[in-house]
Design brief:
The complex is a heterodimer of chains A (106) and B (124).
Chain A: E1 4-7, E2 10-12, E3 19-25, E4 33-38, E5 45-48, E6 62-67, E7 70-75, E8 84-90, E9 97-98, E10 102-105
Parallel strand pairs in A: 2-10
Antiparallel strand pairs in A: 1-3, 3-7, 4-5, 4-8, 6-7, 8-9, 8-10
Chain B: E1 4-7, E2 10-12, E3 18-24, E4 32-39, E5 46-51, E6 58-60, E7 68-73, E8 78-83, E9 92-102, E10 111-114, E11 118-122
Parallel strand pairs in B: 2-11
Antiparallel strand pairs in B: 1-3, 3-8, 4-5, 4-9, 5-6, 7-8, 9-10, 9-11
Classes of the chains: A mainly beta (106), B mainly beta (124).
Chain lengths: 106, 124
Amino acid sequence: DIQMTQSPSSLSASVGDRVTITCRTSLNIATSLNWYQQKPGKAPKLLIYSASNMPSGVPLRFSGSGSGTHFTLTINNLQPEDFATFYCQQSFAFPRTFGQGTKVDI
Amino acid sequence: QVQLVESGGGVVQPGRSLRLSCAASESTFRNYAMHWVRQPPGRGLEWVATISYDGRKTHSADSVTGRLNVLRDHAKNTLFLQLNSLRPDDTAIYYCAQNVWFGEVGNEDAFDNWGQGTLVTVSS
């Protein structure tokens, strides 16, 4: 199985900050990496797919980059509604695997 | 966007079986691979299974392989997950999700459109 390691596991930030979350994989997965945001009591939401692509409706302050084994999710100008837990996930191979999550709080 | 509504969760005794449903609001459902993802209370996300758009291929996590059956009924626009020999560590919220792309399963898949989830509690 492809192991996913997110860092940090949690962070505290303020409105207006720039936040960067890292995801490392145990194998080269090219760009088969997705990011999700989950708020308490809600289903996850797809933020970034294929490492750097955004579904329609995702604010432009979110961006993803990386390839191979090292990926980042960046949130510019953090907004109050962005406080949540973020997960990376690989679709390079089965079984699909998730990172352990990064909780972003105030 | 297709709305997905899961149902069938509840409290189940260990060793019993459970069938979850995921009803889609539109027939475009039939063009997309579908996924099941679960989340134990207070914990992270775990992929459970994927079924191809035509239902011919399924993939599942090792933790459920041999105990799981995933199928889809295009006449009813519904996805099903049957999990047998339930164990306490199957306790989780179960989500269905639509693939971001239509067509075949591939390495550009992502879990795009999610249902609200249904809670399964395995306990005696």
